[in-house]
Amino acid sequence: MTKTVIHKPNYEEELRRAGIRITRPRRIIVGILTESEDHPDALEIFRRAVAIDSSISLSTVYRTMKLLEGIGAIHRHAFEGGPSRFEQAGGEHHDHLIDIDTGDVIEFKSDRIEQLQNEIARQLGYDIVHHRLELYGRKRS
Amino acid sequence: MTKTVIHKPNYEEELRRAGIRITRPRRIIVGILTESEDHPDALEIFRRAVAIDSSISLSTVYRTMKLLEGIGAIHRHAFEGGPSRFEQAGGEHHDHLIDIDTGDVIEFKSDRIEQLQNEIARQLGYDIVHHRLELYGRKRS
DNA sequence: CTTCATGCAAAATATTTGCACGAAG
DNA sequence: CTTCGTGCAAATATTTTGCATGAAG
Questions:
Q1: Which of A11, A15, A81, A122 has CB 3.0 to 4.6 Å from A30, enough for a Cys bridge?
Q2: CA gap B108, B123 in Å, rounded
């Protein structure tokens, strides 16, 4: 098991490659995602964006999230209860441990688990397209 | 890895033990959950309930789901995109493989994975309160 | 009887969409 | 220029809640 390292993708490059226009709101939003080391939801991204350009709308945040998710540039997480939270893709795949008291998210990765998942899917006659592993825990005192 | 076996809990007994009144809507709703071998959402449970007693309201379904979840009698799943889906608890713990083409849910269980999860959490300084493992896959052809 | 559950309608939350206008290429 | 993206407001989807009434124990 290893903790993952943050890396900064070049979203503008990715967008251009996908033939998507680079506009001011999009530039600001991807900038925010690039700088974020947490897992903000749409509203939080909107707040950070508005601090830079107050004319940005929440709709555009949602639209941009969908767009980026579509080209695989970000991942959408639906942790229990709350709204979707987003995270830049492009780093190594990892799973999440969510602190149920603080909401903090810790990333981790286990090749053993991934391997077991594949075995299980195969035994059931499936190929895994993607998966979701979330541990909800409390800090040991 | 093993597939889990369905078993029928006595919800009325559980409710009584928890000091919760057994009303007509509740009896109908838990009856539906007992018979269900799928993972219906609130609206689907509502539809099945209305077929038995047309006076039942969707609010009551939601309230009952929350109640049953509170006493640990059912589990709430938030599979990607859709609304919460429910399943009777009381059987053995298991995880889910979701067929991305049909929405079918297959239950499975892996002690090895559970064990690895615990190790990981411990290494990160946490105790797992619960977890969620979902494999999204496509039938191998 | 007293407490609690219900149905209904309205509210709250999260997200999507139609439309007219403005900006990107 | 032409296409596409934007903000805004309204719509949608899911879930929760206030309130007056009725049922459970």
A1: A11
A2: 26
CATH class of the domain whose range is A7-90: mainly alpha
- Calculate how close chain A gets to B99, using CA atoms only, in Å: 8
Domain boundaries, chain A: 7-90, 92-141
| Set of chain B residues whose Cβ sits within 8 Å of the Cβ of A140 | 122, 125-127
Task: Give the pLDDT confidence score for residue B6 in this predicted structure.
Answer: 45
pLDDT digits (tens, 9 = 90+) for B59-110: 999 999 999 999 989 999 998 878 999 999 877 889 999 888 877 889 999 9
Check A131 against B131: CB less than 8 A apart.
no
Q: Which nucleotides of C are covered by protein (CB under 7 A)?
A: 4-10, 13-18, 23-25
The hierarchical CATH code for the domain A92-141 is 3.30.1490.190
pTM over the 0.90 mark: no
The answer to whether some atom of strand C lies closer than 7 Å to the beta carbon of B52 is: no
Mean pLDDT, rounded, for B16-24: 90
Which phi and psi angles does B39 have, rounded to 5°?
Answer: -130, 75
How many residues appear in chain B? 141
For the segment B35-56, the average pLDDT, to the nearest whole number, is 95
Task: Spell out where chain A has E strands.
Answer: 74-77, 85-88, 95-99, 105-108, 126-139
Cβ <8 Å between B121 and A97:
yes
Note the CA–C1' distance, A62 to C15, in angstroms: 8
Phi, psi (deg, nearest 5) at residue B2: -135, 150
